[in-house]
Amino acid sequence: MLHRTSQLNRTSDRSSSRLLPAVGQRSMQDESPKSTYEQNKRQAAPLSFAKLGLEVGAALTMETVSPARKFTIRMIGYVPDRSILISAPTREGKEVLLEKGDKVTLRAMSRNRVFAAETRVLYRTLQPYTYYHLAFPSELTAHEIRKASRVRVDLPVMIDSEFDLGLGEWPKSAIIEDLSKDGAGLLTRQILGEAGHEVIINLSVSVSEIHRDLEIPCIIRNREVVQRASGSQYFYGVQFDTLSDEDRLTLNSFLYEMEQAG
C-alpha cells in the first residue's frame, strides 16, 4: 500500500542507517572536481526521505543525465525502501520516455528546506496511465533556507489586475529593480495604477535549480517618475499582500541565493 502524507511518520527508522557520512569522514579519493549536486552534498545535512513532509502531488524537479534534461513532475506516492512513484515527464504537452536504469536527480522544496536525491528508473507503468517507479533514494541531502533582506535585481515580470482600473489592456510589462520578502520596486513605462490599487506580479524564479512560477498579489504604495538612460519611466513601490507558505518559502530562498551571489 502506498504511503500518503498522513503516513509519513510511520516510516521505519531503518532509513536512518542510510544517511550520508559526515563531511569530515569523506575519503581523499572524493577530492576530485564534483558536479553541482556533489558539491552541495558537502554543505548539506543528511535527511531521510520520509521526514521531508512532501505531500502526494508535490511538484518535483527531475534532471536526467544522458541527455541532460530538466522536467517538472509530480510525486504520486512512495513505498519505503522500495520505490517512489512519479508522474510521466512531459515536454510541450507530450510524454517523454524514460528507460529502465536511467539515472536521475530529484530536487524539491519542503517546509524550510531544499532537498536533492540521486536515483534511477526502475519501471514504467502504462495502465491506467503512465507513471514511473524510481529507486528509493539511499542518499538524500537537504539545505535549510535562510531569510534575506532587500536585494538589487533586474527581473522582468508581468503585472496583471483583476479589476477594471481604466488603464487599458493587461498584463503590462515591468522590471523588478529591488526585492524583499515584503515588497518590490517596479520600473515600467506603463501606468499600473494609483496608491491603494491592487495588482498581481507574475514572475519566474529558480531556487537551487528548481523552477517556480509565482503570482504575488500586491498593493501599490507609491509612484514616482524617474530618469533612466532610456528616458523617463514610472517607479512603483508595492507591498506584497497575501502569500501562500510555499510562495513565501520560494521567495525567501530566491532572495537568499541572490544575496549570496552578491
Automatic annotation (TrEMBL):
Keywords: Bacterial flagellum, c-di-GMP, Nucleotide-binding. Gene3D superfamilies: Electron Transport, Fmn-binding Protein, Chain A (2.30.110.10), predicted glycosyltransferase like domains (2.40.10.220). It comes from the Bacteria. InterPro entries: PilZ_domain, Split_barrel_FMN-bd, T3SS_YcgR_PilZN. The keyword Nucleotide-binding applies. Residues 1-42 are annotated as: Disordered. The keyword Cell membrane does not apply. One of its GO terms (molecular function) is cyclic-di-GMP binding. Residues 1-10 have a biased composition (Polar residues). This is Type IV pilus assembly PilZ. It comes from Oleiphilus messinensis.
